[in-house]
Specification:
alpha+beta; six-stranded mixed β-sheet; three-stranded antiparallel β-sheet; 42% helix; elongated
C-alpha cells in the first residue's frame, strides 16, 4: 500500500521531467535564426542526449503510473518502437551530415565586455567553411548574429584575418586580399552579412 501511494507522484514527476526535457530539446532544434539566444544554440549540441533522457523518463512514468499490465505493456512497447529508432536515426543523420564546429577565435570588442566576435570553422562539407558571428549581451540573454561566411572552395576565398576596427566595426580579410568591413548596430545586428565563395 505504501509503495502504491508513492508510485503516482513519482510517475507525475517523471512525466514532468520528460515534458521539460522534450521542450528544451525542441527549443534547441528550433534555435539558430538571426538574433537567437546563444544558450539555445549551445543546447543544440545535446539534443540527442536530451531525447534519450526524455524517452527514459517517459517510459519510467508509464511503468510507475499505469497499474494495469494490459495498458502498460503496449504503451511502453509503442514508446520504445517509435522512440528508439527515431533517436538512432537522428544520431546517424547527425554523424553523417552534421559535421562539427570548432571555435577558431573569440575576441571581445574594444571597450565592450558585452560584445564578442566569434570565428567558427565548420567541417563536414566538401570545402572548409569559416563563419563569423557577433554575440551581444550577457548570459543567459546573449544573442548571436551572423556577420559573414567564407567558403574555402578557392584558396582566394579562405578567411585569413578577422579583427575589430572599433567596438562597432569588424574587418574580415581573405587570403586573396579581399577586404570586407561590416558595421555593427547598437543592438548587435550587423548592417549586412558577407557571403564569399
Amino acid at each position: 500500500m505504501n509503495s502504491t501511494r508513492h508510485r503516482r507522484p513519482s510517475a507525475f514527476l517523471l512525466l514532468t521531467v520528460a515534458v521539460v526535457l522534450g521542450a528544451v530539446a525542441l527549443a534547441g532544434l528550433e534555435s539558430g535564426g538571426e538574433g537567437a539566444l546563444v544558450l539555445l544554440i549551445r543546447i543544440r549540441e545535446y539534443v540527442l542526449g536530451l531525447g534519450w533522457l526524455a524517452l527514459a523518463a517517459l517510459v519510467g512514468a508509464v511503468l510507475l503510473g499505469v497499474t494495469k499490465s494490459s495498458l502498460r505493456v503496449p504503451l511502453v512497447t509503442m514508446l520504445l518502437v517509435i522512440g528508439v529508432p527515431t533517436l538512432l536515426l537522428g544520431g546517424f543523420l547527425s554523424a553523417v551530415f552534421g559535421g562539427s564546429d570548432e571555435e577558431v577565435k573569440t575576441e571581445a570588442a574594444p571597450g565592450r565586455g558585452d560584445r564578442h566576435l566569434l570565428v567558427v570553422a565548420r567541417s563536414g562539407s566538401l570545402d572548409p567553411v569559416w563563419c563569423v558571428y557577433v554575440d551581444q549581451g550577457n548570459p543567459p540573454l546573449e544573442h548571436r548574429w551572423s556577420v559573414g561566411c567564407f567558403n574555402g572552395d578557392s584558396e582566394d576565398n579562405v578567411l585569413s584575418e578577422t579583427v575589430w576596427m572599433a567596438s562597432d566595426r569588424i574587418r574580415m580579410t581573405t587570403k586573396g586580399g579581399a577586404v570586407h568591413e561590416v558595421a555593427i548596430t547598437p543592438n548587435g545586428r550587423p548592417d549586412r552579412v558577407v557571403s564569399v565563395g
